[in-house]
């Protein structure tokens, strides 16, 4: 049953009307990556790659997660179609899990394709050794789609209009916390994803660019700690979401107010 | 099949359903009440979308809230006119069948069968977004009965249906009820309910005002004046004779003396006495009607009481 829900939701999420904005953003990122040399003439190939990935692709990941994941339940509530789903003989957690996995596949897919495009644009014709860099980023993006998805799903179950909270988290919290002194970077998802991606350290940087990349403060999270933390976060938030969705009421928006 | 025991539901400071106790068995039962009476709240409690604040709701002896075991035997047709507009009617009903747990093949067969039953087979492949209100209602009914449940709850299902569609819809509900299903239909349009069933639950401001057969409910209002209109070519004489009956409360001539309007108590006794009066006194009556002989008046009486 989870598989059917997954396939049905995937079909829904992959409708051209929904996918077009992401294709546009993906192509835009590719164009930026291809022209980054003109925007930052002093940067090397690896710096260009790291900058574009950190500034655009990981932000795209957070944005897409916020939009797709909040659609899992909130959209059904707002469209008032939730009654159809919740009165079928299927456990609520299965419904939630199938829809969550579909959103993760779409978000992860969009971001991985974008990462691949960025890599192609930046490293085209370059002799620089970048072995493993894209693969690590793809892994980090996959984990990121799961982690952001789990977090935003839980938030969307708790709050009526979760999109705003998720966007504030994605672009406010995730950007500012890694730059603050001390250990605050540990309460962001972005820092762990950067740990998994293990981008090479950058030398000279524009201050604003470094801030957006969350690269101002020092971070010392081991790769193992990154994987373990993300694993725990994903499993615990998913479990909490399934429990919450099973035990609390979800009815059409206007009736809930 | 359905049992509510002192069930109440609050929305913050507002009460949606107030201490309702009732049982609903097989057959067609109408849940009647004005907008805001608590019909949808009651439907949502029965379908397990809401939990009662106090009291209990049971379907087949089980708590319906988020209970897949209950949903295997329950179909729900919500009032809200919301769909996945990009899907066709067939895709939507098939999707609901798959979510019910049927295999792809079984879901397809059931979808075809059910769409034929609700009269949508020839239009099922069009997008729902282009459907008329009546077609949307039928698709909603189709998804509710796709798994042939023992209990079907329909929230205002006749909204937007044309007279022919309405007739077909009512006949279909009658068929389902005759086959032993428990059908609960909510409505605020009383004459529609009257065409469907005599078994009623009357809700007003969250409270269950009356329950049972329409005739039983009618007995509750016997103490209230019941209006009768008599058409006769000798209204003065008729008035004189009728005034002698103990149940007649008031008499009024209509403009032009074409008819006589009476208010009577215990209308059954009045209707028993009237033929004798007509026969014994040779009173000529051209017509006899009662504006109160519909659910509207029952509702009005009980609400005002």
Give a description of the structure.
The complex is a heterodimer of chains A (257) and B (305). Chain A is mainly α and 257 residues long. Chain A has one domain. Chain A contains twelve helices and no strands. Chain A has helices at residues 2-13, 16-34, 36-39, 45-79, 82-86, 92-123, 133-158, 162-176, 189-197, 207-212, 223-247, 253-256. Chain A starts with a helix and ends with a helix. With 305 residues, chain B is an alpha/beta fold. The two termini of chain B are 31 Å apart. The longest helix of chain B is centred in the middle third of the chain and has 16 residues, at 163-178. Chain B folds into two domains: 2-219, Rossmann fold; 222-304, Alpha-Beta Plaits (2-Layer Sandwich), CATH 3.30.70. In chain B, β8 (199-204) and β9 (207-213) form a beta hairpin. At the A-B interface, α1 and α5 of A face α2 and α3 of B. Chain A: This is ABC transporter permease. Chain A: Keywords: Membrane, Transmembrane, Transmembrane helix. Chain A: The chain crosses the membrane at residues 19-36, 56-74, 95-118, 138-159, 223-246. Chain A: Pfam families: ABC2_membrane_4.
């Amino acid at each position: 049953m989870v598989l059917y829900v997954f396939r049905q939701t995937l079909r829904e999420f992959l409708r051209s009307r929904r996918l077009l904005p992401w294709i546009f953003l993906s192509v835009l990122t590719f164009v930026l990556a291809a022209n980054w040399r003109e925007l930052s003439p002093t940067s090397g190939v690896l710096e260009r790659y790291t900058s574009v990935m950190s500034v655009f692709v990981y932000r795209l990941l957070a944005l897409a997660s916020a939009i797709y994941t909040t659609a899992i339940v909130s959209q059904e509530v707002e469209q008032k179609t939730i009654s159809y789903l919740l009165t079928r003989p299927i456990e609520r957690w299965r419904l939630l899990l199938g829809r969550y996995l579909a959103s993760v596949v779409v978000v992860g897919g969009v971001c991985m394709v974008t990462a691949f495009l960025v890599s192609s644009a930046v490293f085209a014709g370059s002799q620089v050794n970048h072995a493993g860099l894209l693969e690590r980023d793809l892994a980090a993006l996959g984990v990121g789609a799961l982690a952001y998805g789990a977090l935003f799903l839980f938030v969307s179950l708790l709050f009526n209009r979760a999109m705003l909270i998720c966007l504030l988290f994605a672009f406010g919290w995730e950007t500012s916390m890694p730059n603050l002194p001390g250990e605050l970077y540990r309460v962001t998802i972005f820092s762990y994803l950067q740990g998994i991606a293990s981008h090479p350290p950058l030398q000279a940087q524009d201050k604003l660019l470094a801030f957006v990349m969350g690269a101002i403060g020092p971070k010392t999270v081991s790769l193992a700690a990154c994987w373990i933390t993300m694993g725990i976060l994903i499993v615990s938030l998913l479990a909490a979401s399934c429990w919450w969705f099973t035990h609390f009421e979800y009815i059409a928006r206007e009736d809930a107010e | 099949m359905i049992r509510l025991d002192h069930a109440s539901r609050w929305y913050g400071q507002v009460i949606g359903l107030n201490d309702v106790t009732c049982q609903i068995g097989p057959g067609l039962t109408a849940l009647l009440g004005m907008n805001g009476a608590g019909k949808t709240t009651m439907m949502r409690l029965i379908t397990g979308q809401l939990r009662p604040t106090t009291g209990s709701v049971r379907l087949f002896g089980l708590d319906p809230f988020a209970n897949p075991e209950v949903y295997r035997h329950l179909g729900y047709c919500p009032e809200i006119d919301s769909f996945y507009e990009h899907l066709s009617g067939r895709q939507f009903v098939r999707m609901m069948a798959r979510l019910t747990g049927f295999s792809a093949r079984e879901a397809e067969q059931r979808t075809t069968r059910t769409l034929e039953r609700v009269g949508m087979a020839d239009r099922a492949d069009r997008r729902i977004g282009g459907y008329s209100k009546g077609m949307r209602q039928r698709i909603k009914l189709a998804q509710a009965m796709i798994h042939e449940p023992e209990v079907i709850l329909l929230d205002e299902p006749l909204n937007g249906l044309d007279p022919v569609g309405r007739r077909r819809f009512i006949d279909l509900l009658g068929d389902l009820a005759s086959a032993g299903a428990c059908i609960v239909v909510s409505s605020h349009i009383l004459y529609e309910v009257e065409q469907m069933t005599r078994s009623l639950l009357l809700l007003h401001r969250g409270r269950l005002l009356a329950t049972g057969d329409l005739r039983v409910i009618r007995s509750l209002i016997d103490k209230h004046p019941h209006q009768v209109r008599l058409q006769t070519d000798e209204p003065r004489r008729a008035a004189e004779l009728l005034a002698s009956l103990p149940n007649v409360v008031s008499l009024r001539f209509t403009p032009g003396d074409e008819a006589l309007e009476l208010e009577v108590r215990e209308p059954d006794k009045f209707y028993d006495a009237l033929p004798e009066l007509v026969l014994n006194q040779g009173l000529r009556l051209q017509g006899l009607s009662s504006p109160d002989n519909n659910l509207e008046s029952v509702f009005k009486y009980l609400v005002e009481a």
